[in-house]
Amino acid sequence: MNCQELERLVHAYLDHELDLMTSLDLEAHLNECGTCRAHHQALRALRDAGAQHVRFHAAPAALKARIARELRDACRDRTSTRLQAWRAATAVSVFALTALLAWVALPVTSPGPRQAAAQSEERMVYHIASSADAETALRNVANHLAISPRARVVIVAHNNGVDFLLRGARNRDGSPYESSVSQLKAQGVDFRVCQNTLTRRQISLDSVIPEAHLVPSGIAEISRLQTQEGYAYMKL
Asked: From residue 96, how far is each of 54, 99, 100, 103, 104 by CA, in Å?
């Protein structure tokens, strides 16, 4: 800090209006500069002398009372305004909470069987344990898809029921089963053959027509479809 800066700030320093760092810089300059130090001391002496002769007068009692009354009124008005705002906010909160509780308390209506069926995909697994029933089963599946063309249908064959899915298998009329199977396959029907049955009966895997695919266990596959994928069950 130089002398010009001190001249500009000295009165603020005497009135304790400077921040700490500026005050320290100013005091460091006073310690180094005798001229500025003398000027500062003269200003301080002048201020102290003037302060000794200043007369202080007490405020009249009436003025004190009026000021106190106005302050109380101002505080009361502010408190009243805040209280009104708090009451309004509380009323809104209570209304919102009441509405929320009423909404939560509304009864949940479970869909009826028909409504639930309409909302879910129709799925059916047909279980064929004997090829003597295969012709009837295929006809029933075709009728099912005629009524519900978007239904998902799986046919699981095990035990003697795998015979109609072997190459060259024919129905009572001598017609090959593979033709009927191909038509249903084109409509999305999935044919699954129990591999345990093939192993037990020593039937070659190559004997199974290409429209069908193997699953490790026919019974386990039916159980999985029912419990994990929501299929209804029909045994033929």
From this structure: 64, 5, 6, 11, 12
Tens digit of each residue's pLDDT, the chain (236 residues): 899 998 999 898 888 888 888 888 889 999 999 999 998 898 888 877 766 665 556 677 888 788 888 888 877 767 667 767 777 676 666 666 666 766 666 665 555 554 454 457 899 999 999 988 898 999 999 999 999 999 999 999 999 999 999 999 999 889 999 999 999 999 999 999 999 999 999 999 999 999 999 999 999 999 999 999 999 999 87
Supply 65's token pair: 């009372």
Rounded-to-10 torsion of CA 40, 46, 48, 53: -170
The amino acid at 149: P
pTM to 2 decimal places = 0.51
Between helix 34-52 and helix 20-32 the angle, nearest 10°, is 120
Spatial CA neighbour of 157 closest among 123, 191, 114: 191
How far apart are the C-alpha atoms of 191 and 161, rounded to whole Å?
A: 12
Give the pair of three-digit tokens for residue 16: 């304790």
